[in-house]
């Protein structure tokens, strides 16, 4: 579990899990023309909120062209650090663990990363994500373990049998879709960069997202991944 501590008693952080079998964003001056028709795979998913659809769109932008995502959305943050304080646009300053080093690490990795398949929304993964989001919205808990002792694998198995690979990212803080993805990609304070690895994994083809309120952290967004499900 990693934390990004904010001033004014405001905190946001994310936790990531992966298992294998085998910022309100700033725009650069030369903004890439993203093919949103192709990337917005969740557009017709009526079981998702607009913000949940936007999270999937942001993840697909990242996956389709990691170097462009780094140039357009991460590089403009390089001059927003004052020591370990990130003056995130449109938000209160964030006290990070690593300072600009985590951002530079993310930019370096994304610029070398190949594109990976777009994620398609899946109602089974969404139900699993929603189970955990509702649990944490009610209890104020954090992390991957539910109040009933369930793991991410357990929650997904309630709705189907996943195959090959699954994973889970959880973010607490600013509910804006780009903010969710940017902070998890930077992955400040997480040595193995588990959130970033999940976002860039070629082993995932399906995704479920559930975002809601959280009594301690204001908002929570649970993102579950899988390669496929048994028929």
Describe this structure in words.
The chain contains eight helices and nine strands. With 231 residues, it is an alpha+beta fold. Strands 3-4-5-1-2-7-9-8-6 form a nine-stranded mixed β-sheet. Strand 4 and strand 5 form a beta hairpin.
SSE inventory with pairings:
Blueprint: E1 2-6, E2 11-20, H1 36-39, H2 50-64, H3 66-74, E3 81-82, E4 85-86, E5 94-95, H4 100-112, E6 120-121, H5 123-139, H6 152-157, E7 162-172, H7 177-186, H8 194-200, E8 206-214, E9 218-229
Parallel strand pairs: 6-8
Antiparallel strand pairs: 1-2, 1-5, 2-7, 3-4, 4-5, 7-9, 8-9
Helix pairs in contact: 2-3, 2-7, 3-4
Provide a brief overview of the structure.
With 231 residues, the protein is of the alpha+beta class. It contains eight helices and nine strands. It has a nine-stranded mixed β-sheet.
Keywords:
231 residues, alpha+beta, 8 helices
Number of helices: 8
Q: Strand tally, please? A: 9
What global shape is seen? globular
Helix-strand pattern, N to C? EEHHHEEEHEHHEHHEE
Mean pLDDT: 89
* Share of residues in strands: 15-25%
Task: Provide the helix percentage.
Answer: 25-40%
Oligomer: single chain
Radius of gyration, in Å, reads 16 Å
The secondary-structure class comes to alpha+beta
């Amino acid at each position: 579990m990693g934390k990004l501590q904010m001033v004014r008693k405001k905190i946001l952080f994310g936790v990531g899990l992966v298992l294998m079998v085998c910022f309100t964003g700033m725009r650069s001056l030369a903004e890439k023309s993203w093919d949103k028709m192709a990337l917005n795979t969740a557009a017709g998913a009526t079981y998702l909120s607009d913000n949940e659809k936007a999270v999937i769109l942001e993840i697909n932008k990242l996956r389709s062209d990691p170097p462009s995502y780094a140039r357009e959305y991460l590089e403009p943050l390089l001059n927003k650090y004052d020591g370990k304080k990130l003056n995130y646009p449109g938000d209160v300053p964030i006290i990070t663990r690593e300072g600009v080093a985590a951002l530079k690490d993310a930019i370096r990795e994304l610029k070398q990363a190949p594109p990976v398949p777009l994620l398609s929304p899946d109602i089974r993964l969404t139900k699993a994500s929603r189970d955990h989001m509702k649990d944490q919205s009610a209890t104020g808990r954090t992390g991957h373990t539910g109040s009933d002792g369930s793991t991410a694998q357990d929650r997904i198995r309630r709705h189907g049998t996943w195959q090959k690979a699954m994973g889970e990212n959880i973010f607490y803080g600013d509910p804006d879709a780009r903010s969710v993805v940017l902070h998890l990609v930077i992955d400040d304070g997480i040595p193995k960069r588990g959130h970033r690895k999940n976002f860039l994994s070629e082993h995932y083809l399906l995704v479920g997202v559930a975002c809601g309120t959280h009594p301690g952290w204001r908002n929570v967004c649970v993102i579950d991944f899988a390669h496929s499900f048994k028929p």
